[in-house]
Specification:
The protein is of the alpha/beta class. Helices cover 28% and strands 17% of the residues. The strands form four sheets. Strands 1, 2, 3, 4, 6, 8, 11, 12 and 13 form a nine-stranded mixed sheet that branches. Strands 14-15-16-17 form a four-stranded antiparallel sheet, covered by helices on one side. α8 packs parallel to α11. The N and C termini lie far apart (45 Å).
Length: 505
C-alpha cells in the first residue's frame, strides 16, 4: 500500500526579526519554536521576496515573484485568477484551510480591484457568518485583518469573540471610522482580556480544523497566519510585562554608516525630514523620521518580545494538538515570517525600503519526523518563492511550470547541500519614486534603484552588520561589475517557462 501523503502545516508570523527565537537569542523565550528547531532544521539564511506583507504572502501561496503574480505592493490586490497551492492541493484530495491574517487584498475596494478586506465589509458580520470560502483556492477560510486594536478588526475573529461571550468587542478596538486621537488611545498594555486575543483565536481555529480533517480522514494543507508581532506594540497582560525594558538591547547606528548610502537613508535621521518626493499618491512605509528615544524603544522592544512569546504559547498548543491526535510524525510543519523588522539597527525602526538583513532575512524552521534531520542549523539559501513547489513535492504533486521557485525538499531532508545560489528581493512600493531590487548570494549583496546612480554593495562575510557600503569604493569596481553580472543572470534565470518547447516552429 502506498504511504499516506503527509499533512502540511505552514505557519507564519507577521514582521518578525530573524533573531527573535530563544535558540539564537537568550533574551527571549520561545519554547514552542525552540522545540521545532530542536526537532527539525533551522535555516539561518531564509529571505523574503518583498519586505511588505501582501506581496510576500501572495508569493507563498503562488510560487511566483510579485512581478509575476501582480500583487506588487500593499494596497494592491492579488488577482483571484492566479493559481495557488490551495487550488492544487484541493484538486489532489487535500483538505485546504486558511486561518488568520490573509492580506491578499487592499483596505479599499474599486472596480476591477474589489476587496473583501476593506471597510465596511470587514465589520459586516452577517456576510462573514455565511462566507467561509472557497477563496484563493482554499476550501475553508477563517480570517481577520487587524493588528492589535486597529479598526480593521472584524470578520471571523469578531464572530468568535461574540461566541466566546465578548459582545462588546468593539470597545477594545479603534472605532471605524477613526481619528488620530483613537489611534493613540492605548500603548503597550491592551485592556483586551487575554482569552479573547487573536493569537488564541488563530490557534483555536487551527486546532479545530485539524481535528475536522482528521475526522474526514483526509490529509490537510493548512496555512495558519498569526498577526503578531507587527506593530502597534500592544499586548494583554501578563504578556505586556513579561520582559523588562532594561533587559532589552536595541540595535545601533554606527558613526558615518549612512553617509555611504542614498539620501533616503540619511533623511530617516532628521527630526522632520521632507519625504514627500517618495510618497507619490500613497504613503510609503519607512519614509519618515526614525529618530527615537532609547527608553521608548526599549519599552517597545519589550512588548514586541512579549507579543512573540504570546504567539509562541499558542503555537505550542497547536503542536500539542498534533501530538494528541497522533499525527505529529505524519505532518510537515514549516514556520517563517513574511518579512523582518528594525529595532534600532542602522538607526531604523519598524520597516521600510531599506534592504538590510534585519528587513529581508527571516526566521525559518522545518520539522518532519523521519524525513527532516533533527537539531540542525543549515546555511542553504531559502526564499519564500520556494515554499509552494517544495510543499507540493512533499505531497508528490507536480509543480506547474509557471511556478518560479525551486524545490528545496532535498535540502530540507538533508539529501543535498543547496538548491539555489542566489536570492532576489523586489520592492516596488512606488513604481516611479521607490523601486529597488536586491541580489544576495552566499557572500555578497547588491541593491540597485530605478532612476538612481547610487546603490549598495555589501560583503556579508567581512561585514555581516552591513556598515561599509562598497558601491563607490574604487577598490571594489571589479567586484561590483562581477556581482552585477550575476544579478543580471539571475534576473534572466527567474523568467518562468510554463510551456515546454516541443518543435522547431
Amino acid at each position: 500500500m502506498k504511504p499516506r501523503r503527509p499533512n502540511i502545516l505552514l505557519i507564519t508570523s507577521d514582521q518578525q526579526h530573524f533573531d527573535t527565537l530563544g535558540v539564537t537569542n537568550p533574551r527571549i523565550r520561545t519554547p514552542a519554536l525552540d522545540r521545532l528547531a530542536h526537532e527539525g532544521v533551522r535555516f539561518e539564511r531564509s529571505y523574503c521576496v518583498n519586505p511588505v506583507c501582501s506581496p510576500s504572502r501572495s508569493t507563498i501561496i503562488t510560487g511566483l515573484y510579485p512581478a509575476w503574480h501582480h500583487c506588487w505592493t500593499i494596497g494592491v490586490k492579488l488577482p483571484e485568477d492566479v493559481p495557488t497551492v490551495g487550488d492544487l492541493f484541493s484538486k489532489h484530495g487535500y483538505a485546504t484551510t486558511l486561518i488568520g491574517k490573509a492580506h491578499f487584498q487592499p483596505l479599499a475596494s474599486a472596480p476591477g480591484s474589489e476587496s473583501l478586506e476593506c471597510q465596511p465589509t470587514l465589520r459586516d458580520l452577517e456576510f462573514w457568518r455565511g462566507f467561509h470560502g472557497p477563496w484563493y483556492g482554499f476550501q475553508h477560510i477563517e480570517v481577520a485583518r487587524n493588528h492589535a486594536d486597529e479598526s480593521h478588526a472584524g470578520q471571523h475573529y469578531a464572530l468568535w469573540m461574540e461566541q466566546q461571550g465578548l459582545d462588546n468587542w468593539r470597545d477594545f478596538f479603534w472605532p471605524w471610522p477613526h481619528s488620530a486621537k483613537d489611534m493613540r488611545k492605548r500603548r503597550h498594555t491592551w485592556d483586551l482580556p487575554e482569552q479573547f486575543h487573536y493569537s488564541k483565536w488563530t490557534a483555536d481555529r487551527t486546532i479545530a480544523n485539524i481535528e475536522r480533517a482528521v475526522d474526514l480522514d483526509k490529509p490537510f494543507f493548512m496555512f495558519t497566519n498569526f498577526h503578531d508581532p507587527h506593530p502597534p506594540y500592544l499586548a494583554p497582560e501578563p504578556w505586556a510585562s513579561v520582559y523588562h525594558p532594561d533587559d532589552m538591547v536595541p540595535g545601533t547606528l554606527a558613526n558615518g554608516e549612512l553617509e555611504r548610502l542614498g539620501e533616503h537613508f540619511q533623511l530617516t535621521q532628521q527630526p522632520k525630514p521632507d519625504c514627500s518626493w517618495y510618497h507619490e499618491e500613497y504613503y510609503s512605509h519607512g519614509f519618515h523620521s526614525h529618530v527615537h528615544n532609547e527608553a521608548d524603544l526599549r519599552k517597545d522592544m519589550a512588548v514586541y518580545y512579549g507579543m512573540i512569546s504570546l504567539m509562541d504559547h499558542h503555537i505550542g498548543r497547536i503542536l500539542d494538538a498534533l501530538d494528541r491526535l497522533g499525527i505529529a510524525d505524519s505532518t510537515l510543519v514549516i514556520f517563517l515570517t513574511d518579512h523582518g523588522h528594525f529595532l534600532g539597527q542602522h538607526g531604523l525602526i519598524a520597516k521600510g525600503a531599506f534592504h538590510f538583513e534585519d528587513m529581508i532575512k527571516l526566521p525559518m524552521l522545518v520539522r518532519w519526523p523521519g524525513n527532516v534531520p533533527q537539531n540542525q542549523v543549515l546555511s542553504a539559501l531559502q526564499s519564500q518563492v520556494d515554499l509552494a513547489p517544495t510543499c507540493l513535492a512533499a505531497a508528490e504533486i507536480p509543480a506547474p511550470g509557471v511556478m518560479q521557485g525551486v524545490n528545496q525538499l532535498g535540502v530540507w531532508c538533508g539529501q543535498q547541500n543547496a538548491a539555489r545560489d542566489h536570492i532576489i528581493v523586489e520592492n516596488r512600493h512606488q513604481p516611479t519614486r521607490l523601486h529597488l531590487r536586491t541580489y544576495v548570494d552566499e557572500r555578497y549583496k547588491l541593491t540597485v534603484y530605478r532612476h538612481a546612480d547610487y546603490g549598495e554593495l555589501f560583503d556579508l562575510e567581512e561585514d555581516p552588520c552591513e556598515i561599509r557600503n562598497l558601491w563607490n569604493e574604487p577598490s571594489a569596481v571589479e567586484l561590483k561589475m562581477r556581482i552585477m553580472h550575476r544579478f543580471l543572470q539571475a534576473e534572466l534565470e527567474r523568467e518562468p517557462t510554463r510551456m515546454p518547447r516541443i518543435a522547431g516552429a
